[in-house]
Amino acid sequence: MARKKTALVCGAGGFIGGHLVKRLKAEGYWVRGVDIKRHEFAPTAADDFVKGDLREQSVCRRITRDIKFDELYQLAADMGGAGYIFTGEHDANVMHNSATINLNMLEQARLTGIGKVFYSSSACIYPEEAQTTTRNAGLKEAAAYPAHPDSEYGWEKLFSERLYHAYMRNYGMEVHVARFHNIFGPEGTWEGGREKAPAAMCRKVAETPEGASIEIWGDGKQTRTFLYVDECLEGVLRMMRSKCPGPLNIGSDELISINDLARMVMKIAGKKLAIKHIPGPLGVRGRCSDNTLIKKELGWRPTTRLVDGMTVTYRWIAEQVAKRRKCACACGGR
């Protein structure tokens, strides 16, 4: 019998990491997951889950000392949606926490000889001035320089991209770097300030009674592309099985305004709601993934329609909202 491949997933208690563990297990891997917290919405599928802080070098040593891993997936980061990233109140934590994790885990991967390393970067690395119009033509990977991200989160991600590729050049490590563009789906954060726009929109629509209004930051004309999580995982695994070090965009090129995203969710829910525009953190005006390079390098590009992914996501979030209401009623509002 062939030996099972082994994978270490950092950030396994998070949204994408939790889904990645399930996918790797379905493909026959032995998986160790590690995170500072356990997954909030689903039991882990990992063979072994370590609750630990990857900012601590002792934790990084402990999770790699007993097994020689074939693959490392580094998704752990201090992150969130616009309500967390763009207020400016969390910049020091975002940069310090994520950079420390990357420095620790990459050095440990070098010391222990992990075969392949994947790093999840972000579309937030792209220059602010390339994203000033709602009709964004698509961000090509080469457009990252001259560098001018619109957030400290983006600057840290760009630094870490260079860190991973420096280790690849200097130590001969096999490294793959992808830039995620707004990944969404079920079993992710949907309230509390760290949720992304698709989850926030689903929650607002699910919570709001027919005929009332939901709030949207800004004029709602700002545009984004959103990628369903299963497509993200497919891109990650195809990249890890290729010779492409990246960086590669992993995102949809189906551009939509936030107003139209809200209307899409209302249609999915079968509700008619008004939209109230209010001040709030916005990020760039328009962002779209250019998928030319991923199609060239991997012979593949994401094809799942936004409405299909949003339908699955809305149903899951609506269930969470209903469960919370039921609990509040059972507890007498306490």
Describe it:
The chain has 334 residues and is an alpha/beta fold. It has a domain at 6-185 and 228-250: 3-Layer(aba) Sandwich (Rossmann fold), CATH 3.40.50. Helix content is 40%, strand content 16%. It has helices spanning 15-26, 57-64, 82-85, 91-112, 152-171, 197-207, 229-240, 258-269, 292-298, 306-330, and strands at 6-10, 30-35, 48-51, 71-74, 116-122, 174-180, 183-184, 213-217, 223-224, 227-228, 248-250, 256-257, 274-278. The strands form 4 sheets. A 7-stranded parallel sheet has the order 3-2-1-4-5-6-11, with helices on both faces. A two-stranded parallel sheet has the order 7-10. It is globular. The model has no long low-confidence stretch (mean pLDDT 94).
Number of strands: 13
CATH architect. name of the domain at 6-185 and 228-250: 3-Layer(aba) Sandwich
Sheet-strand content, in percent, reads: 15-25%
CATH superfamily of the domain at 6-185 and 228-250: NAD(P)-binding Rossmann-like Domain
* Secondary-structure element series: EHEEHEHHEHEEHEEEHEEHEHH
Radius of gyration: 20 Å
Note the gap between the termini.
Answer: 55 Å
Structural class: alpha/beta
Q: Point out poorly predicted stretches.
A: none
> Mean pLDDT score, rounded?
94
